[in-house]
User: What shape does this take?
Amino acid sequence: MLFECKYAYFLGPEELPGVEAGLKGRPAKIYRARRMVCELLHPQREAGIALPEVWNKNCRRQGSWYRASSHNGEVLVVTGFPLEGRRGVKIAPSDFQPSRRPGPEEIRLLARSPAYSKVKPAEWDRIDDFDREQSRLLRQGLLKLGLATPEESGEAFDSVFPGHCANHANFIEPHFFIEKEKKVGTALSGRPEREPAEGLPHERNNQIIPYSLGSTLRVCSACVELFDLLGDQFEEKLVVLCPGAVVSTGLPPDRYFSVTKI
Assistant: This one.
């Protein structure tokens, strides 16, 4: 099951009553996220909100990206329709598939890049037993849904964590991306993905579109990119859902979603 598109916004707490009143005038029921903010992406939820404390629940370490952002303390609102006069992002399914993903050495370089190290919250690296247990439960959930093999679901958290770091790093200073020609505005140029050693030799008139570096089982906290906490300097991103998003919404794994500014 997929949705056609979703719209995401961050609002100050003082703005919420007015927005809620406006939403109640529509047939959509307002859903309140309970454990994870990605619950708001469920295809059958036309309107939903996530209060700041939701970022501290199941994904509390991952929520450090939110707490370190300019949106800390704000309320996330996700709808199936645009809110007039508000800036946010539009999230829509994409058919994109990368021609290449990074190898182990490239992941290591990205995860240690100065740009990433400068931006990442200190709490992000503080992995504890709670994190490992949450990861195990989510992977077991994917296994029960037939979306992961026993070998994949049994991978140790510490072995996949560098990939999580590299994935976020690619939305801070992209090395794996596609380019869209600004003059045309629609057709992808088909230029090759860049490797970390090559830097960013993109053409001045082209728009960079960074993308997630792994499959669902290889990424974490996709909400950081989906809701524009990372990569907000880019007009568009291509994002794969993490295990938590797939389990909590029923959306397909490994599918890319286009995130564009509105």
